[in-house]
């Protein structure tokens, strides 16, 4: 039987814990999360277990990435069950601070971003990536893991974090895993719990629209037309789309042509009161 993970509440304790592992010559992996863990998170843990000697998961609902009208207070908080899930996978430590630990009184520093942080999510949530980058930098500097695991479901976030780590020369490798999906194609997300039964039946049509649009783009023809068709299909299914866009998969720049470059199709759409995001390679 696996031991329960050590529960850490301060950055000082996180740093001491990982420093102790490193002093023994052990490698360390980190899985940053906001809790409400699902199989997508657990897949990140399992991959980290294969790559490193010790694993620390973080659970922190980060207030700085929520806007004033967003779901910070309603976001699911399930620390006890999250820790129990992590224990079954042999996670050695869980870092679960409070907001005052991460943002003490007088906190006045955030990370300024460009590159892959521009457009898409930023057009609708301008505060979001500064909050993400700042808290991820604090976590990585708090634990100095050898690797940190992120899922491709939040694809723009993944590229923003990679750019930040590269630009700040942080000594952590960012490892990405493909999106984990339900059997009907819906990308796993903690916010799926907000969906009503009828909305849950509709939700997989987001992934279906992405697949159909990607297939149309691969077949040739007018990309803008294919994107409009995909957008219209989402509206017809009952979504309120924010965007459905084709971007370069490495930079998120808008491609002048579709040939000879990796491409990613990204979408965000509201279904009732729930905002879903998804993406696929083209």
Automatic annotation (TrEMBL):
Recorded catalytic reaction(s): these are: (R)-pantoate + beta-alanine + ATP = (R)-pantothenate + AMP + diphosphate + H(+)
Protein name as catalogued: Pantothenate synthetase
EC supergroup of this enzyme: ligase
Residues that, per the record, bind ATP: 34-41, 151-154, 180, 188-191
Q: GO MF terms on file? A: pantoate-beta-alanine ligase activity
Identify the species of origin. Kaistia geumhonensis
Under Enzyme Commission nomenclature, its number is 6.3.2.1
Locate the active site.
41 (proton donor)
* Cell location: Cytoplasm
* The UniProt record lists the keyword Transcription: no
**Which residues of the sequence carry a binding annotation for beta-alanine?**
65
* Stretches that traverse the bilayer: none
Q: Which family does it belong to?
A: Belongs to the pantothenate synthetase family.
Q: Does the keyword ATP-binding apply?
A: yes
Q: What does this protein do?
A: Catalyzes the condensation of pantoate with beta-alanine in an ATP-dependent reaction via a pantoyl-adenylate intermediate.
Misc note: The reaction proceeds by a bi uni uni bi ping pong mechanism.
- Which pathway is this protein engaged in? Cofactor biosynthesis; (R)-pantothenate biosynthesis; (R)-pantothenate from (R)-pantoate and beta-alanine: step 1/1
Top-level taxonomic group: Bacteria
């Amino acid at each position: 039987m696996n031991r329960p993970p050590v529960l850490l509440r301060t950055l000082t304790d996180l740093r001491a814990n990982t420093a102790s592992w490193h002093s023994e010559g052990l490698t360390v992996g980190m899985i940053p999360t906001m809790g409400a863990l699902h199989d997508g998170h657990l897949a990140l843990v399992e991959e980290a277990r294969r790559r490193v000697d010790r694993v620390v998961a973080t659970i922190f609902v980060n207030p700085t990435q929520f806007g004033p009208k967003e779901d910070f207070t309603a976001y699911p908080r399930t620390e006890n069950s999250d820790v129990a899930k992590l224990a079954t996978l042999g996670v050695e430590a869980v870092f679960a601070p409070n907001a005052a630990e991460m943002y003490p009184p007088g906190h006045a520093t955030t990370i300024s971003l460009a590159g892959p942080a521009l457009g898409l999510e930023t057009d609708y949530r301008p505060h979001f990536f500064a909050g993400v980058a700042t808290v991820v930098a604090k976590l990585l500097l708090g634990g100095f893991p050898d690797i940190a695991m992120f899922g491709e479901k939040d694809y723009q976030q993944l590229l923003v974090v990679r750019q930040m780590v590269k630009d700040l020369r942080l000594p952590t490798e960012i490892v990405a895993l493909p999106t984990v999906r339900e059997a009907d194609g819906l990308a796993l997300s903690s916010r799926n719990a907000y969906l009503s039964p009828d909305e849950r039946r509709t939700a997989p049509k987001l992934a279906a629209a992405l697949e159909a649009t990607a297939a149309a783009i691969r077949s040739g023809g007018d990309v803008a037309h294919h994107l409009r068709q995909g957008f219209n299909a989402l509206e017809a299914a009952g979504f309120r789309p924010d965007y459905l866009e084709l971007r370069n998969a490495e930079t998120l720049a808008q491609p002048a042509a579709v040939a000879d470059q990796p491409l990613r199709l990204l979408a965000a759409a509201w279904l009732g009161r729930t905002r879903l995001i998804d993406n696929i390679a083209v």
